[in-house]
Fold each of these.
Amino acid sequence: MNCFIFITLLCIPPVFTPEQRTLIQSMANPTFELDTTNAYEQNEQAAKLGQQIFFDPQFSSNGEVSCATCHKPELYFTDGVAVSTGISAVTRNAPTVLNAAHQRWFFWDGRTDTLWGQPIQTFEHPAEMGGDRKDIATTMTSDPVYATLWEEVFGNTKNVPVSVTAANVAKCLAAYQTKLVALDSPFDRFALGDKNAMSESAQRGLQFFIGEGGCLRCHFGPWFTDGAFHTVGVGPLDGGALRDAGRFDAIAILQTAKFTAGSEESDDKLGTRAVISKHIARRREDWGAFRTPSLRNVAKTPPYMHAGQLASLEDVVEHYSTLENFVTADHHRETILVPLELDAQGKADLIAFLESLTGTLPPSHLLAPPK
């Protein structure tokens, strides 16, 4: 009898208070803010040019690696492995570029403050694409396909500094990536009034997420992230102590980077984004901290964490449920993290909710080189 009552209770959908429903509605329908540092963000021809570049391996030193090598459309723009391999192996996981245009910081450690500030670092990283901005600039003017597209967007290309051409290449890539939006998830439909859009298990997971789970401390708002940097206790892939300084080293890189919100190549170098970046200082707590990723489409982008240390959502939920293997750089630990202590049903419900955040991929014409 008691078992029957327990099973019956599990079949009852959770009841959300009016306050909870208002909160849930606020987490749907993300707003889109223009990047004022990129004057070409909404330029259709720039986006087409960026799409061509994204899938083209000729910008790598061996002619075999493109942006799509590590950001495959069929894998929700990830590569499905723990740490990526470009020209050679790197040390971090490739995050999805879906919805990436609406982040505040880029890369796992936030070493760039604009979406267009990211590509040149990738092009020139010896383990990623191993290219050179001078070669990129030459390709834009000498390759017949690119030269035509380039002139349509930027006009005369003579006597243009290499740094300006490189920045414009990056801005075109950003214009394309801005189109890579994956929303319209079961959660969004549920939040907007479709009571059948989410399973009862997912609804229970949602109630835990916004309530006693405390997940909103780091994963709030329509993008399910605070955009900040945290140490969450996941050790290196091969075990041992933490070795990746994360945000701590990234701040120094950000302050000397060539393509930033406050650089000469920015289209809003005196804007709010640039001012904030200028005044960021290193803190001891930043050592080993990494950016809180958006949870949208999280079920489609395993493995997880900055070096792909956790293979599945089950592993992620287990980590936060127990925190048994929490690794710290010294004695610092995120004070907001406490074990969730979930039972088997609670874990299943939370995973069901995370799966409900899977949105629809962008239109097919954006998932391959432009025709």
Amino acid sequence: MTHRIVIVGGGAGGLELATRLGKTLGKRGKASITLVDSNLTHIWKPLLHEVAAGSLNTSEDELNYVAQAKWNHFEFQLGRMSALDRDSQQIQLAATLDENGVELVPARTLGYDSLVISVGSTTNDFGTRGAADHCLFLDTRKQAERFHQRLLNHYLRAHAGTDSSSQISVAIVGAGATGVELAAELHHAAHELAAYGLDRIKPENMRITLIEAGPRVLPALPERISVPVHKTLEKLGVTVLTSASVSEVTVEHLVTADGQIIPASLKVWAAGIRAPGFLKDIDGLETNRINQLVVRPTLQTTRDDNIFAFGDCAACPQPGTDRNVPPRAQAAHQQASLLAKSLKLRIEGQALPEYRYQDYGSLISLSRFSAVGNLMGNLTGSVMLEGWLARMFYVSLYRMHQMALYGTFRTLMLMLGSRIGRGTEPRLKLH
């Protein structure tokens, strides 16, 4: 019987893994590969801040799972994993409903021999009062598009004269990569909107406040990166508040733990992560306090060798330290590459290799204004980058993701098409 590999989650890691396995095991008939996701299309999550600001048109940069499956010898199933039965080696998929609540795809079960869970993470609001009701999140394409529409609505009302306000205030909670990049991208969007005639709200009247509970922006990255980023944000007019934890969110403002009130018509929560709630102790698997599945260095779950987990939803130890692998895109990419080899070895009955995280550095984009980061390698050590060169390396990360999915030729065609389209499309999504 053909070995059944089921991958739950079509994010960057899960989709890359399905594509790699389809090209090897699936094409040769050595295994059947099934990818499960609750959406029909994929967008690279590190780009969601650009979707929110309108700098990226998702209809042009999204990937269709059905087409990708056809081209790469795997099967796609639309659905959301809701339960696990380890004894019978089956997962339960919840029914999928259309926009009117009518059942589109019924609930069903899928059997597996090897199950890979790569469902990513969601934003963690830490139970802050009012955050879930009054803040927008940027975990999915729909959430990013909802933010963009609300931003655009402010400008359209002002342009039509139906809103007497000539300014807009945006508060972003969390100065990690998402919060920092969104702040810079919104500053750029303010200038673009004014250039297209929506100038009742002047660029300088978009008041952006970035709020971080820790002592500095980008707390997970080296200080030599966070310092120039902080300075650049302030030059752009962004108000940066550090050592300021948010204790409450209301319709009109945020309140910090020390009583400071920050007015905001648009509020984004971009602080902290947790794995999806359905993973918590699912069928007896070990999870941690933020719902991540605890895995061994082979990426197998601690209580079931048939189940693997990787990416943001997995707590994978770093040998020689008391820390887990950080929830970063490069970690998910590395783990997907390892699992592509591991699952082949598993089918052949061989021992599985262990994952060791390699930090190749960090790059932060500040829209068209700048980029900052460092690259790390065995030959070069740590090299600090800033400005145009850092921006080019940042863009190359997305192109590498595309190459893993499309191959070199099609990626080059996508790049060419994007270049041609710049002359016939607005620089900012205006609808």
